Amino acid sequence: MRFATKAIHVGDQPLEKVKPVITPIFQTSNYSLSDEVYKAFTQGKEREVWIYTRHNNPTRRAAEEKIAALEGGEDALVVASGMAALASVLLTYLRPGDHMVTSQHLYGGSLNLIKKLKENFSIKVSFASPNHPEGIIDASTSQTRLFFFESLSNPLLKPFFVEGVKDFARRRGIKIVVDNTFLSPYNFNPLNHGADIVIHSATKYLGGHSDLLAGAVVGSQEDVHRIWETYVALGPVADPLACFLLDRSLKTLHLRMERHNSNALQAAEFLEEHPGVEWVIYPFLPSYRHREYAKENFRGGGGMVTFKVKGGDEAGLRFMRRLKIVKEAASLGGVESLVSMPFNTSHYALSPEERAELGIEEGAVRLSVGVEDIEDILSDVDQALG
Ligand code: PLP
To answer: Quick one: 274 and 370 in the same domain?
Structure first.
């Protein structure tokens, strides 16, 4: 071998002899082929062998198997972002002329995608309240193929009563798709309550450290395989490094969620007593409209608290700018506490009247409570509300 050939080919390790205790980063775009791989390929079993990282990757597979197990699904798929997860699901089950029932109480990016499907692909869309099963059923037509709701909505924390629509959906062959990002699989498993498919922005609690973007889809083997086929055609691949970070983070999800749950409850109780605050929404507060449902169904209320600062959006902005530990940022679900306002982030595209109609009043603030010492977070919030 000459210089260049040596540089490229010397040193490849026979992996069958390496036994790491964790799944390492398989930072490779492809794998050596063999007769076994070709055979699997022609039999439609591409996901059972290693061909090409868009199709499958061992680091990604580790995260997928963990997420499937934690959500109680048969299989899972990890993709590049929460939006890629939702797009892959909607494009698998909806054809032009089909109808879906969803809610205005969704992450703004999800509403944007649904709007595009409506305009560009003639998908028909009706909106219903996530906690009125009769309204969802009434909004359905003979063309309805899919229900899509968040298990706890962004930012007003409205629950989706999946059990109220599951029998109807089964009878009609309607797929129930639930975005479980806010609650995480630690607090709630929609598949155990009648959902067919769960999606996540794994960028949030599953990743948990604000250092990766990823999305996940969980469901039966058949559903995940169909969605995988759409995903392979579209190509929104999660990088092996992001998959490694995700797999690593999932190992502490239970520890982080315990702390998110208890810190957020304490923050919600503190805010409710604060003279600078008009109202607070948090699932385990006595004032929460669906507290009984939350207590019965959720292991914890999650890390998100939404509240209204007295004095409107200007006062809300002043509050955020005075915080010293809590950072003003758009995302959520990380170990650090973050704060943002829907009016200039997730719901900026709506007019003040449209926001008010949804219940997003002026001064509404969304606090993603991290896993710090809660005393420090509360005194920071207190001085900033001061
Ligand atoms: N679903 C919810 C509830 C979200 O809050 C977000 C992002 O904020 C998404 C989906 C989209 O996820 P991603 O940003 O990973 O594409």
So the answer is: yes
Residue pair 327/337 in contact (Cβ under 8 Å)? The answer is yes
Q: Whose CA is nearest to atom 8 of ligand 1?
A: 331
pLDDT along the chain (386 residues), means of 10: 97 91 97 94 90 97 98 98 98 98 95 96 98 98 98 97 98 98 98 98 98 98 98 98 98 98 98 98 98 98 98 97 97 98 89 89 97 98 96
| Sign (positive or negative) of CA dihedral 250, 252, 255, 256 | negative
pTM of the shown model: 0.97
Mark whether 52 and 112 lie in a shared domain: yes
228 and 287 fall within a common domain: no
Residues, the chain = 386
Please indicate, yes or no, whether residues 246 and 363 belong to a single structural domain of this protein: no
Chain centroid offset of residue 347 CA: 17
Nearest CA to ligand 1 atom 2: 107
Residue 89: exposure state from Cβ atoms within 10 A (0-12, 13-18, ≥19): buried
Range of the domain at 169: 15-250
CB-CB neighbours of 50 under 10 Å: 21
9 occurs within a structural domain: no
**Alpha-carbon span 8 to 147, nearest angstrom:** 51
Residue where one domain finishes, among candidates 203, 234, 250: 250
Instruction: Name the residues annotated as catalytic.
Output: 54, 107, 179, 204
The total domain count for the chain is 2
Domain assignment of residue 336, yes or no: yes
Give the sheet arrangement for strand 215-219, strand by strand: 75-79, 215-219, 197-201, 175-179, 144-150, 99-102, 124-127
Q: Is residue 10 assigned to a domain?
A: no
Nearest CA to ligand 1 atom 13: 82
304 shares its domain with 226: no
Q: CB within 8 A of 132, min separation 6: which ones?
A: 161
Q: Is 79 in the pocket of ligand 1 (CB under 6 A)?
A: no
Distance CA 46, CA 61 (A): 13
Q: Which of 193, 224, 250 is the last residue of a domain?
A: 250
